[in-house]
Design goal:
- The longest helix is centred in the N-terminal third of the chain and has 25 residues, at about 25-50.
- By secondary structure, the protein is mainly α.
- The protein is about 60% helix and about 0% strand.
- It has helices at about 1-15, 25-50, 60-70, 85-95, 95-110, 115-130, 150-155.
- It has 7 helices and no strands.
- It has one domain.
């Protein structure tokens, strides 16, 4: 479904705004980033179901997770020279900013980094180990603290390329 949405959006951008569609190696990198991102965010969505007690709570729980991450990742308001360091740190740790940078590289010609794709993929791996679903007295829990290595290993990702974040 994500691929279809991207194809429709790209076709509309080409027809209405004369946007350039990536070709060659740029297109291949774009597609890899799209597939990894789609798989990672699907896995994270399934992992989030362990936090949702019923269908009525789904929208508030998901919005409480994703909206702050999108704001802190520079999605709605672009980062500037005065962006606080802690916001840049949050953006480096979570996968949203990395996914956006890899998508922008395909359409805007900004530098592509495989590190961005790897960070998004790293977030998918512990989410795949997190049992989804919950019941009233038996909430699902991750096995063996599967998220700890991700938090410990990703805290300095992108530190050497700080100019990409501002």
């Amino acid at each position: 479904m994500a691929i279809l949405l991207v194809a429709i959006t790209a076709a509309f951008g080409r027809a209405a705004y004369d946007a350039d569609i990536p070709t060659g190696a740029t297109l291949l990198r774009f597609l890899v980033a799209l597939l990894v991102g789609a798989a990672a965010f699907c896995a994270l969505g399934l992992a989030a179901t362990a936090l949702i007690p019923n269908a009525d709570a789904a929208a508030p729980v998901v919005n409480a997770i994703i909206l702050p991450l999108e704001f802190l990742s520079g999605i709605f308001i672009a980062f500037g020279n005065t962006t606080p360091a802690w916001i840049l740190w949050v953006a480096r740790v979570f996968p949203v900013r990395h996914f956006v940078l890899s998508m922008q590289a395909g359409f805007l010609g900004s530098p592509f980094s495989w590190t961005d794709v790897l960070v998004v993929a790293a977030w998918a791996s512990p989410a795949c180990c997190w049992p989804s679903g919950s019941s009233a007295g038996n909430r699902a829990r991750p096995e063996h603290g599967s998220l700890v290595p991700v938090y410990a290993g990703l805290w300095r990702v992108g530190g050497e390329n700080r100019e990409r974040w501002t």
